């Protein structure tokens, strides 16, 4: 029985082949059955998406049966082989569209953006057929999810790079693993800056095409894009000349970059080579939490970033909900819901840079403590997970930017008391402070 809300009746019945419908009738019907792939939107609820999908894909079984009948039919009543080939081709495409994104041929999608601060625009993205390991030819949901958050970053944790007169505005933003280019093109539009889009050499032709067809939109909004090949861990002859000058970019962005075991190391190396050594430099990463394998690759990436010659710490992180169209788009398996983890990484500051600006006598590390032993940095100071350097504390604690000591909870205080003997009269230790131990 048809659901009156989710499955509205079709506007017209499908033609019956036993009636030998004309070529124009069959072609018009098949064109009306075209299904566009999803454009996921973080602002649209899952219920709305399901309702829309159901409305578009009503009578799926009947339609698939109709398409299958056409493919198997000789279409002998049509006047020419050319007409038969067109009808068979269109019917095959409609069936592929109902088998998910991976079964589709070449498609072009328009991705809308709207915000009261930067206005309304859309980007046109071509996606060739997915073949072999060419995963960069698909627009992944993480690219759109992160692109929709870019304005929040430029007015929040990345404001020091984009607000005029604060510190500096990056001459260029580097995107690693750009794929079809949606994220980098959106960054150029929203941030009104220059973005270099990069990927493997075999991905570059389509990436360059998308940059070209969107150039007017990007430049009309004050941005600029360039495209260049960049193979992570590639040999010298595989490196574009612009990337031979290391530590050039104040900001690197990357979305959904981890698929193989070797990717965390390769990506961490590429970031280490290209990111500026400035304490203001940042890396913005988004990784979908599809399964345990992806989560494991993310843990490895975080470890690899800390092992680089210029270690990178996670400064801020969050998880947002979103969708993607990997798998059977209209099947019963609910594979479209994905959680996207994003993080901002920054260079581990040197001891000198840990001084509070304007108050050089106050440090966020105790005497004899080395910042490279740190486990993380937040807005209030530097975290250590256990005993380090000459610090007498032996459990989790934070050296605050104001020179004080902070514990996350009472258990951490008790752990420290169990693990060490406080020497309150020793001025060389943080415990000698007169303030209460809980900062």
From TrEMBL:
Entries under InterPro entries matching the protein: Methyltransf_16 (IPR019410), SAM-dependent_MTases_sf (IPR029063)
Cross-referenced SUPFAM superfamilies: S-adenosyl-L-methionine-dependent methyltransferases
Listed GO MF terms: S-adenosylmethionine-dependent methyltransferase activity
Pfam families (alphabetical): Methyltransf_16
One GO CC term on file: cytosol
Superkingdom to which the source organism belongs: Eukaryota
Protein name in UniProt: Rapid response to glucose protein 1
């Amino acid at each position: 029985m048809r659901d009156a809300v989710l499955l509205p009746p079709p506007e017209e019945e499908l033609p019956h082949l036993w009636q030998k419908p004309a070529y124009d009738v069959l072609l018009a019907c098949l064109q009306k059955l075209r299904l566009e792939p999803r454009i996921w939107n973080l602002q649209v609820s899952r219920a709305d998406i399901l309702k829309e999908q159901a409305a578009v894909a009503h009578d799926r079984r009947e339609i698939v049966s109709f398409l299958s009948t056409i493919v198997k039919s000789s279409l002998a009543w049509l006047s020419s082989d050319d007409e038969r080939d067109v009808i068979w081709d269109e019917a095959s495409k409609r069936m592929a569209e109902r088998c998910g994104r991976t079964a589709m041929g070449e498609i072009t999608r328009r991705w809308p953006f709207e915000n009261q601060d930067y206005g309304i625009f859309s980007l046109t993205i071509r996606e060739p057929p997915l073949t072999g390991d060419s995963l960069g030819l698909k627009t992944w949901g993480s690219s759109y999810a992160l692109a929709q958050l870019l304005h929040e970053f430029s007015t929040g944790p990345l404001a020091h790079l984009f607000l005029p007169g604060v510190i500096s505005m990056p001459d260029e933003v580097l995107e690693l693993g750009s794929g079809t280019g949606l994220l980098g093109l959106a960054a150029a539009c929203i941030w009104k800056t220059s973005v270099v889009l990069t990927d493997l050499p075999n991905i570059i032709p389509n990436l360059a095409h998308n940059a070209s067809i969107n150039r007017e939109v990007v430049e009309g909004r004050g941005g600029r894009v360039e495209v260049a090949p960049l193979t992570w861990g590639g040999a010298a002859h595989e490196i574009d000349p612009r990337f031979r000058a290391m530590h050039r970019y104040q900001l690197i962005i990357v979305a959904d970059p981890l698929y193989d075991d070797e990717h965390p190391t390769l990506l961490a190396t590429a970031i280490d080579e290209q990111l500026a050594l400035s304490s203001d430099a940042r890396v913005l990463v988004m990784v979908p939490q599809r399964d345990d394998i992806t989560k494991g690759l993310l843990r490895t990436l975080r470890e690899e970033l800390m092992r680089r010659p210029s270690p990178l710490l996670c400064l801020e992180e969050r998880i947002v909900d979103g969708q993607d169209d990997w798998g059977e788009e209209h099947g019963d398996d609910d594979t479209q819901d994905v959680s996207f983890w994003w993080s901002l990484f920054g260079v581990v500051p040197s001891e000198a840079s840990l001084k509070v600006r304007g108050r050089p006598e106050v440090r966020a590390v105790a005497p004899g403590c080395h910042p490279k032993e740190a486990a993380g940095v937040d807005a209030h100071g530097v975290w250590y997970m256990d005993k380090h350097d000459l610090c007498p504390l032996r459990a989790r604690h934070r050296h605050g930017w104001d020179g004080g000591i902070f514990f996350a909870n009472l258990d951490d205080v008790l752990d420290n008391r169990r693990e060490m003997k406080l020497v309150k009269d020793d001025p060389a230790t943080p415990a000698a402070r007169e303030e209460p131990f809980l900062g």
